[in-house]
Request: fold
Amino acid sequence: MTAAGLAAIGAYAPRLRIDAEEFEAAWGRFDAAGVDEKAVPDADEDAVTMGVEAARRALTAADASGAAVAHLAFATTTPPMAEEDLAARLCSILNVPDDAKTQTMTGSTHAGAQALDATMDGGPFGEDIGLVIISDCPRGDPDSEVEHAAGAGSVALVVDDDGPGTVIERASHTEAYPGTRFRTGGDDRTTGLGVTQYDREAFTTTLSSAADRLDVPMETVDAAAVQSPDGKLPYRATGALGVDAATIAAADTVSSLGDTGAASAFLGAATAFADGAERVLIAAYGSGASATLFVATGPVPVNTALDGAVSLSYAAYLRRRGEITRDEPEGGGAYVSVPSWQRTIPQRHRLVAGRCSACEALNFPPTGACTDCHERTSDFEAVELPGTGTVEAVTTIQQGGAPPEFVAQQSKSGQFDSAIIALDSQSGEQTVSVPAQVLQATDEVTIGTPVVLTTRRIYTQEGVIRYGFKAQVASQRR
Amino acid sequence: MRDAYLIGAGQTPFGSMPEESYRSLFDHAVSEAIDSVDHGIDTNAIDEAVVGSLGVGGRQLGLSGPAATEHAGLHGVPSVRVENACAASGYAVRQAVQAVKSGMADVALAGGVEVMTDMSSDVTKYWLGVSGETEWERLTGTTFSGVYAQMASAYLREYEASEEHLSMVAVKNHRNGAKNPKAHLGFECSFEDAVGAPVVADPLNLYHCCPTSDGAAVALIASEDVVGQYTDDPVRIAGVGAASDRVGLFQRDSYTSISASEMAADTAYNRAGVGPDDLDFAEVHDCFTIAELLAYEDLGFCDRGEAPQLLEAGTTESDGAMPVNLSGGLKSKGHPIGATGAGQLVEAFKQLTGSAADRQLAAPKYGLTHNVGGSGGSAVVHILEREAAR
Reply:
């Protein structure tokens, strides 16, 4: 299938930001041309949690639910686990049916384009939808161009048969250009040889060869969302793509979010559509090298959370990056095994509570005797909670006071709030109390504060990342 | 069932004692308990032993009960370790009382021991959290101080109470503990210090939290049939109550009370046939100072929400109508988890037998001890009565 409907786009970037001036103050120079500030993932954010944020927004904008997803493709150059099918966790968190086809694309910043390409091929979807989640948070050595530029962000595209948007054309090109941007096995830092002219040639040759295969006149394009490892390279592609600099600037995100890797071109498309563009060129490029161009027409409903909220100092940035922090201490005790964690995944991923068959009270988690009437009921009716609630009791765990599983998080992010939340039921008539960490907020969290739940990394033990819910002050949700 | 009597009780100092092992600590407490028996007692007379410990610090030792009692010369005596977090040895005492009342034992030894200060801070972080709800509560990154702080946040919101009341409890208990040579933090603290200490988990600061301690305590329980052999001045265990609740705070009915304490106290009062007004003193579980305020209400010393006023009125001071934590409490005397419950019996024994030295009340008749496990998953209350001399 050449064309496909584009029902909606969701986009997300972490609320933490660092200004280029912070790097200049620390290093005496800043090596990411065209980047004014960039997004920084918090200690409990990664490509999966950011992907969930974008996917939820895309589904909302499409007025669809995870239950409608027949095909889910996940793309990132920074998978939180190098081996393990993370699409399974995304499906679980987003409530995607267990017979959905899944794909994970990684290995280069071209992965996002590969995911959209494959999802389009997965149609037609009939009443169902395809969901493409592209999420990335690259990093490099602290003094490298890659690290100075490295941002974070995610985008999700809902693909269906009838839009309102349409991907009208696509074309790809692959050509071997080793060494421009790469990461060796086991390393989490991206690098490149820095052969300037060669790097540019790989970029422009690959993009122009793909552009040659497109039938769309480029002057009809309102915005060109071009792969942006920094704020300068995309403008080298004006000739290759046949667009002017203003058209590329119309889809700029790198100046405010930094290099968002596989999500880069798609985040540009999201902002262009949000700004009212009718026809957008998406030009994704991955080192190695390969490129895919898509031409999409609007209108496309867009739901974004891309604004920053908290500015970091360079020292705070180094903490978030884990450059100057400690890991979980050695020890034992209060150990929660992975199998026992797995049994609670419906609660941790999807807030599945249980209604007591004896007294109708909500229980969370729904196991054992009812916490309200204490009857030995074993048949709790599963009730999914909407994820809104109110703080009932709260404390702040000061720096140095976290239990071992949270030492690494606290080392990176500092003190945090731990609360008991009265979660609302769908009908609003009942509540059930759950303990939850509260994301850092600029307002004080007190008893009575309204919150919404979101998905974050809870902790990592024995190498296994455990995702679950945390609360966010409702007024601070972007 | 026949009555049970507290015929002796003793403890080590509570504190940091790197020169001692858990067995040597327990041995010292056994010696002191034996020495405290009016007419003396031979270890051969002990039929049963119950040892409370969370796990001998973070060691998670098996068979620590027999290891401790054999080391102390109680050769061959059936011995078992009971674990109920911070209420371990309160429950050990209850078990010993059961053994005596049932007729299985004429004399039973109940004690507790913990070694908490010889571990790296990393290891301590791990095992201190084992007594909360570990799959949900702990995995919000909270700690014991965090959970009690959450209770404090709810209490301060619901009632006419402030952080200053939390500090007043600390000042009072340190004032008492300064008179206790066995106290871990046996010094007075000023109100200014107790208000201005570094925050641990808002609203709790360092002075609102008890220390972690090494220590052991032992109580000797005898039946009414043999008590006359050991003393002419008997202390009867007039009532025992115990109760459980959900381990995780979020699953409980109330965040501003500990219902296990309330239920345990009701049972103990009923069995003893007395009420709070009959008491002359109480040793309550003040692991955090908010817990002492909750205890005033859970144990019926005042109505709900009136603990701050009871404190302000001086009622619970050493010279008040209802002195609480004359030993210094967990706050000043220290909190070697497994030893704490039995340690409370030691203070009660001293007060009721007139051997509390500088802390001695004038002829008290009834005393209460109150021991809580975790943040309220378990509680046990003992009411002790000094009978007329025989």
